Amino acid sequence: MQSCDLMSEPPKCCICLGEFTRPASLPCGHRFCLGCIGEYWRILEACRCPLCKAFFPTRPQLKTDQTSQPPRATVPLKAGEVPCDLCPAKRPAVKSCLVCLASYCDAHLEEHYQREDLGRHLLISVVKNLEESVCRLHGKPLRSFCSSDRACICAMCAQTEHRGHHIISINKEAAKKKVLIRRRSHRLQRAIQERQSIVEKIRHSVDFCGENPKQTCVQDKEPIQQLEEEIAELQERNAELEKLSKTEDSLHFVQRFLHNAS
């Protein structure tokens, strides 16, 4: 990262090399995107200017330039976007906090970069169903699957309670489970087709019944009704499998699969 003096400071953030987003001025006079300098300090675990290397023993109050950034218009959330937990207008979140168990837009994320106590919180890329995505024991993301205990675990779990167990990634476990769902769906579809075929044969035989068609129809009514009930139940189970297989998030998919299997 090249240093530059105060008189020749570039018009772009020296960390992301892009246009300023919520510019924040340090006591030394250099400016950065608030999110960029906040992340820099959080990862570095020290408050230092990336340009002049000025060190600040305590986190300084960052002055943000609100005038250089026009207010964002409220637009409907796009598919897959997670709403900010503090926004009345529900703007899209840009980070999720594993300590607060909440997701924030760029504006409401400011406090995590301004306050020293919040600055130590672990921020991750936005995730849906945040509480279900975090280990309740260690507070870390659930990114692995323990096949031995059939449980979603975090990195700390793999080194402690589940050490020595058969552990794979959540994505790999999700891929295996989706193959299993496809096989189950095919079996259900075959069972549905077999029962539908039997119903058609019974109805076809009724059309050519013997001397007493009324008696034949009464005898065949009960098995047809039973078969149709079985078909409806199988179709419902197959619809549930298809809905489950369309779950995009691998962790959420595995958790739902385990819940349905229990």
From TrEMBL:
Chain coiled-coil ranges: 217-251
GO molecular function, one term: zinc ion binding
B box-type domain boundaries: 130-170
Family matches, as PROSITE patterns: ZF_BBOX, ZF_RING_1, ZF_RING_2
CDD domains: Bbox2_TRIM16-like
Sequence ranges assigned to domain RING-type in this UniProt record: 13-53
Pfam families: TRIM_CC (PF25600), zf-RING_UBOX (PF13445)
Keywords: Coiled coil, Metal-binding, Zinc, Zinc-finger
InterPro entries xrefs: E3_ubiq-ligase_TRIM/RNF (IPR051051), TRIM8/14/16/25/29/45/65_CC (IPR058030), Znf-RING_euk (IPR027370), Znf_B-box (IPR000315), Znf_RING (IPR001841), Znf_RING/FYVE/PHD (IPR013083), Znf_RING_CS (IPR017907)
Highest taxon, organism lineage: Eukaryota
PANTHER family: B-BOX DOMAIN CONTAINING (PTHR25465), BLOODTHIRSTY-RELATED GENE FAMILY, MEMBER 16 ISOFORM X1-RELATED (PTHR25465:SF32)
Name of the featured protein: Uncharacterized protein
Species of provenance: Amphiprion ocellaris
Lineage: Eukaryota, Metazoa, Chordata, Craniata, Vertebrata
